[in-house]
Amino acid sequence: MEWDSLWFNGHAATMAPEGVVRDAVIAVKDGRIAWIGAAKDRPAGRAAAEHDLGGRWVTPGLIDCHTHLVFGGNRAREFEMRLEGATYEEIARAGGGIASTVAATRAADEDSLIASAAVRLQRLLAEGVTVVEVKSGYGLDLATERRMLRAARALGERFPVTVRTTGLAAHALPPEFAGRADDYIALVCDAILPTLAAEGLLDAVDAFCERIAFSPEQTARVFDTARRLGLPVKLHADQLSDGGGAALAARYNALSADHAEHTGEEGARAMAAAGTVAVLLPGAFYMLRETKLPPIDLFRRHGVPMAVSTDCNPGTSPAVSLLLMLNMACTLFRLTPQEALAGVTRNAAQALGMAATHGTLEPGKAADLAVWDVGDPAELCYWLGANPCAAVVRGGRLVKS
Ligand code: NIG
Ligand code: FE
């Protein structure tokens, strides 16, 4: 038998240079795409299982490349405070915000972290997500950061999804280090990150470079540590102000600079030169009632690849729908549907350093497919609150139908 499985009678939005293949055939062998093309060009050969797509559309499995999926508690009360007029920064400075989730996460054991994140993860998976990045960052001590990352990895074993873990120990200053940010960064660089890396729990390192978090100098120390550990970096950059975060990230050849609402031309130029992806997070923009739009035209003009993600987190973006983010990226940020779809496939893979294996439908890539009951791929960006996902294939195996 030439192939393990074969999918026919559908249309493929490959997200590769080939673009759209109508009346497509996708042949799978050993969990990878062995052949993809138009039915009329199908090479001779048979598959152990043949699946009729019934005229539906197929895209690469969706990739949610920026989440804080694992956390204790929630911040619904803080949401009410913000509706009453308090700002995100004011709440953070008053000891709420990230710090309140840190307290709830420190109090949660691994099983309850897994259980609460599993509910959110299943919502993502139901919409065709096959790869998800999960950050630590609500522990801010070695034991809890480790517990979060172990919970994230456990989710990847229990559910049909590829989990990438990112160490975000430099997310906020833990209360026990109040007034001693440099000491905390020293702990992150000398102990927390090296230990987590040695335990094999990190695929990348992230930080929050912002007035209410860490300075560019402190962020650079974290990035130097990542470099020493051989780990790629990402950055929460220029979310609330232009602190030069995107340019700093680019200096370290970061996989991505995320949020980037306040990034200026210099940052965009540096990102383009470094191949750093701009990860757009419309859920956080919307929840914070941000008015400063990310510089989409600058990113287009300089050729900065744009990804789109949920930023699923209890504070700024309690979002569990990547499809809704597609709509919001188009409606709020004026991305075209094509750009938005590239943002949850090809460019999201690049933002995770996975472009060689994921994010497009091409021979040799993982057979991660999402099958959609739509008349055109742009429809994925159109509906609000509908889920046209008809089937999901991961590594060649049907995991939802
Ligand atoms: O991506 N900006 C920093 N981190 C998160 C929010 C974390 C939180 O408020 O709990 C974000 O927006
Ligand atoms: Fe985030």
From TrEMBL:
Q: Which CDD domains match?
A: Imidazolone-5PH (cd01296)
Task: Give EC number(s), comma-separated.
Answer: 3.5.2.7
Specify where it is mainly localized: cytoplasm
Keyword field contains Transmembrane? no
Q: Which residues form the Amidohydrolase-related domain?
A: 57-398
Q: Which domain of life is it from?
A: Bacteria
Cofactor or coenzyme needed: Zn(2+); Fe(3+)
- Location in or out of the cell: Cytoplasm
Give GO cellular component annotations, separated by semicolons: cytoplasm
* Cofactor binding description: Binds 1 zinc or iron ion per subunit.
Output the InterPro entries linked to this UniProt entry.
Amidohydro-rel, HutI, Metal-dep_hydrolase_composite, Metal_Hydrolase
- Quickly give the catalysed reaction: 4-imidazolone-5-propanoate + H2O = N-formimidoyl-L-glutamate
Q: Which residues bind Fe(3+)?
A: 66, 68, 236, 311
**Pathway membership of this protein?**
Amino-acid degradation; L-histidine degradation into L-glutamate; N-formimidoyl-L-glutamate from L-histidine: step 3/3
Q: Where does N-formimidoyl-L-glutamate bind?
A: 138, 313, 315
**SUPFAM superfamilies given in the database record:** Composite domain of metallo-dependent hydrolases (SSF51338), Metallo-dependent hydrolases (SSF51556)
A GO molecular-function annotation: iron ion binding
Which BP terms from GO are recorded?
L-histidine catabolic process to glutamate and formamide; L-histidine catabolic process to glutamate and formate
Keywords carried by this UniProt record: Cytoplasm, Histidine metabolism, Hydrolase, Iron, Metal-binding, Plasmid, Zinc
The entry marks the following residues as binding 4-imidazolone-5-propanoate, namely: 75, 138, 171, 239, 316
Zinc found in the keyword field: yes
Q: What does this protein do?
A: Catalyzes the hydrolytic cleavage of the carbon-nitrogen bond in imidazolone-5-propanoate to yield N-formimidoyl-L-glutamate. It is the third step in the universal histidine degradation pathway.
Would you identify the family this protein belongs to, as annotated?
Belongs to the metallo-dependent hydrolases superfamily. HutI family.
**Listed name of the protein:** Imidazolonepropionase
Q: Which organism is it from?
A: Azospirillum brasilense
This protein's encoding gene:
hutI
